[in-house]
Every structure is written in C-alpha cells, then in structure tokens.
Design a protein that fits this description.
7 strands; 7-stranded mixed β-sheet; 2 domains; single chain; 11 helices; alpha/beta
Length: about 325
C-alpha cells in the first residue's frame, strides 16, 4: 500500500501552448496536481479546467503575484492537504518528467530533505542551453553558493525540485521572495532549518518556449538580494546561533585587512604628495596584516564549506514506490 502523498505544484502564467501536455506527462504516482494560475491573460485556465484529471486542483490569483507568490499559495494548499512530498513543475514544458523518480528518490530513501535538478552535470547537455543563460548561471551559481551556504549545489535557478513535506512545514514562507528570486531565496531559507540538499543531474531542455526572466534583470537584481542574505546568514550562523573559531577568524580577518589597506593607502597617498618613497618597513607594516587577514578569511571560508548540512531532517528509509 502506498503511504506517500505526492503533490505537484505548477505555477501557471500564460502557458496555454504547453500546459495540457505538461499535465498529461505527470505520472500516476503523483496524487495531487495543484495548478496556481497567476492571473494569466490567455486561455490557460480554461484549458486546465477542461482537462478530465481528478487529481487537478486549481487556485486562481486575482492579481499577478509572481512565481514565488504562486508557489507560496501552492505550498499552503499542499500542507492543507497533508502532502508528504511536494514537487515544483513549471508550466512551459521545460522540465523532463522522465526524471521525476530520480528527483524524489533521495527523499524517499531518507538521504535528503530537498532535491533539485542540475543542468550542468553533463557537458553534452549544456550545448542545448542558450549561451547567455549558461554564462549567467555559472556566475549566479557561485554567489548563490556563498549566500545560501550550500557550496555543494549548482544551477540555483533550476525550478524543478522536490521537497519533503515536514521540511516544508518548518520553513517561514514569508522569507520567500514572491518573484523570480524565489528559487534562490528558497535555498537560503532551507539552510536556516538545516535541510540536506541533493543535486540531480538532468538534461537542459529548451524548445519553442520563451523565458519571462530577463538575463540583464537577473544580473542587476539578484546580486544585491543575495548579498543581503549572505550577511544575514553569516550573522545568524556564526554570531547568533553559534560562536566558534570560524567566527573569530572572520572578525580578525577583517580587522587585519582593514588596517593593512588603510595603512598602505595612507602612505601611498603621502608618497605621491611628497615624492618620497615609503620605506621598506612601512610597506611591510601594510603587507603583513593584509596577508594574515587573507589567510584568516580563507580559514573561515574552508570552515564554512565544511559546515554544509549533512544530517537530513527527513527520517524516511522506505522502499521506493
């Protein structure tokens, strides 16, 4: 007897060309298909309501709230219906349903609380991804690793993910971003509750669909949002919830770097004004704190990389369905 209740959440916005095929591709192991229409301006809702699938539940937004806002509505409905696993699937047909079993397997086996697709695992598959997205994802992945604390994950904007139901109930949904920063903000929120994340290699799939997410908009909007979450994570993790050698290393790294840079720039400016070169002793006084500060920062960074959550909240260990 099947003991899991699996729910798929589809945030829907102007995908009338794809939504029917997406729903038809969802396998029978899924118990609930929660469609959240984010105030589509096309016939998406009409199409969905005419699909004879008893698993369908349709939520309609009176105003557009963004993909994050749609997912929050879907999360609330999934928790209300006591779903034990929640899966996000976009309505544009980019996500390969053949990999759904691979996505939920780590959760069912009790190895992870959250699993997500990684389109960068296979070099050949990358040729199918537009170049601008490839470059943008590489840079975005690195700063997302730092902001979220999950140095082991890649492809942070991949929205094909699965989450353990009890893990979802531990999250503060108010911390999730309502728009396209949703996936990255979700990773940051998962870190706070100590969730274990596993990347699932899968191909990049691009057809005739067009993305509503501008690469240039991502370039300018995401880094400031990630920087705020980085500062918040470091403060909570190393100064509020714990205070360790890593905390001390970080403090002194900034003290030494600040002193060395200020001292060096001050004497460099004086040398320019007077035309008298700084003495070797002056240069050493500037260089040594910078070197020491950089070494202490590397020590902190090494410790941070080793502090990735590795004990799943999820206590499963069952046979796959």
């Amino acid at each position: 007897m099947k003991s899991e209740k699996i729910a798929v959440i589809i945030p829907m916005f102007n995908v009338e060309k794809h939504i029917e095929k997406v729903i038809e591709s969802i396998p029978d192991l899924v118990d609930l298909i929660i469609i959240v229409d984010d105030h589509s301006r096309d016939n998406s809702v009409v199409i969905v309501k005419n699909i004879p699938d008893k698993r369908l539940i349709v939520i309609e937004h009176e105003v557009n709230k963004g993909v994050g806002g749609a997912m929050i509505s879907g999360f609330k409905k999934a928790m209300e219906l006591c779903a034990s696993i929640v899966i996000k699937v976009d309505g544009d047909g980019q996500m390969p349903m053949d990999y759904l079993n691979d996505l939920i397997s780590p959760i069912l086996l009790g190895q992870a609380d959250f699993s997500k697709g990684n389109r960068f695992a296979n070099f050949e598959d990358l040729t199918h991804m537009p170049l601008i997205r490839r470059i943008g994802n590489l840079g975005l992945s690195f700063i997302t690793k730092a902001a979220s604390g999950y140095w082991n994950v890649f492809d942070p904007t991949n929205g094909f993910f699965a989450m353990d139901g009890p893990t979802l109930r531990k999250l503060r949904l108010d911390d999730l971003h309502p728009r396209y920063f949703f996936e990255s903000s979700l990773l940051c929120t998962l870190y706070r509750v100590g969730s274990v994340i596993e990347d699932i290699p899968m191909p990049a799939k691009y057809g005739e669909e067009t993305s509503s997410l501008s690469e240039w908009k991502t370039l300018f909007e995401f880094p400031p949002l990630l920087f705020v979450r980085l500062i918040n994570r470091i403060w909570l993790r190393y100064f509020v919830m714990d205070f360790s050698v890593a905390s001390i290393s970080l403090i002194f790294s900034f003290i030494f770097l600040f002193f060395g840079c200020v001292w060096g720039l001050n004497w460099w400016y004086r040398s320019i004004q007077t035309g008298i070169p700084a003495t070797s002793g002056t240069v050493i006084i500037a260089a040594l704190p910078v070197i020491l500060g950089f070494q202490l920062f590397l020590q902190f960074l090494t410790n941070d990389v080793q502090n990735i959550p590795n004990k799943p909240i999820n206590k499963r260990g069952k046979t796959l369905i």
